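User: Assemble these into one structure.

Assistant: Restating your components, then the assembled model:
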Amino acid sequence: MSQTMTIQHRGFRSLKARFTLRWSFWAQTAFITILALALFGPIANLLIWTIAETWYFPHTLPNQWGLKYWQQVFNPYSDVSGSLITSIIIALCAVVVCLLVSIPAGYALSKHTMPWRVGFMLLFLIPQAFPNLTVYINIARIFYDWGLNGTLLGVVLVHSVHGLMYSVWISVAAFSSIDPMLSRASRNLGAGPIYTFIHVVLPQAAPGLIAASIFVFLESLDEFTGTFFVGAPEVTTLPLLLYTASMEGNYQISSITALILLIPSIGFMLIINKFMRPEMLSKLGK
Amino acid sequence: MRASTSNLLLIGPAALMVLALFLYPLFFSLVSAFTQDDLSFTLAHFVKVFELYSNDIKFTVIIVLSSVVLLAILSIGIAATLTLSPFPKLVAVLALLYRLPLFIPFIVAAQMMRTFLAKNGLMNNTLVAMGVMTPLETVSLLGWSGIIITFVWKQLAFSTLLISGAMAALNRDQIQAAQNLGASRLRILVDVILPQVMPTIGVALVLSTVTIMSVLSVPLMIGTGSPTMITADIAFRVNSYGDYHVANALGMVSYLICAGLAWFYLRQSLKDKGALS
């Protein structure tokens, strides 16, 4: 008697558990669907604007579709191609500057015995830990005295400082993870310190340094505020062009520019996604 | 050469760059906010800031607080689903989905929202097509709500990445034990997971605040004139008047907003450790 009761009771419990499980499945699916709509909606709107020739209120979709503005954008004399080249030159220069100063700094900071190590690590964090708008207006004012305002060099320097935190911190992580025995073996076999660094240490740290370069490149490509104060109006990068076009109400040009900026971002994200796991991120800086 | 000297030489160029191009301008802004042109001390710039921009300061604080609260709720929700959901397929989709805006530049996000949230944007158009509202009832969300939506949309990926990373690094045994003792998933989240990842949540939210106070493109492109965020006021003060003193005084206010949040977080975490009574 009591046995059947328990079986019945168990059957009821498992039914209830199954119901809860099914309910939470649908609740989570609904949550993910809403999130997907909220994430993809704005992107879809941007894509539609890139191929809309006219779109007036209250039409749900554009009145006229076409690629007219793409031809305008990819005309070799257009502002877009010019500022695309400027943006890429600036981003590449920022990568070079960051690597030049971060490789030695990252190598030195990877040795845990270094005095004031934490202090230096924090120093490189500061540009990301302070709201940088106020700093940029003062850099612009200082650069004005130094003759750097409105020059490529000025913009490259501003972007480099902004990217320095990524390049230094990732370099430190890259140099920390290499095998110290290999460089010791190289030294024992009679290689000099510089030869060892270039031929033994650097190749092992290369994946990390490439990741750091990608971060600096993207940060520079997407940087708006610093360029707005230091570069404009002489230096026009893609984000500045996007802003100007959008404020003039020229949504087609600004959407196409935005799409051009999106391509490297999404592409690099797919690459980095392979290396970057949230679990790994929690180990960064240790 | 001693090892520490050579280390300093190696770090030198990078450290010098931060000193010359970040700390020096930061110091410059501090001096400029409190002095007149002849370097004599004054508080006149702050008086002017509160006369002209007290509304905008309130507006900025409200935007920052609402964005941070929304970010906390949403990213904890996503991270908890990722950690506790019994459906591996849904977790895989969600893990891919939430990272989407991570590398989308703020200026692109601002341009997307400028079209998406407008009166004739895709959001309103979809609602009209679904019959939820008529074209005449549509309202543009550009303004304070649009600014909050854009910041949350973009910053959600970053804060969720940090928080779900902290949750993934937790010891699974405790969760397993709580589950075996019959605790519901909500109870596990509140009583087991959240207390342990609180520091990471705090860091994610403070860093998000700093980002919100640094981004100029969103208030310029989504905001609608008055009231506006003080970041837009700073740009206006510099570009239209060349008035660096008041702009820097406004900058001090923006530091204070970030510092206020950081202080709140530090005090809270000290309280949890029992250091403060």
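Chain B has eleven helices and no strands.
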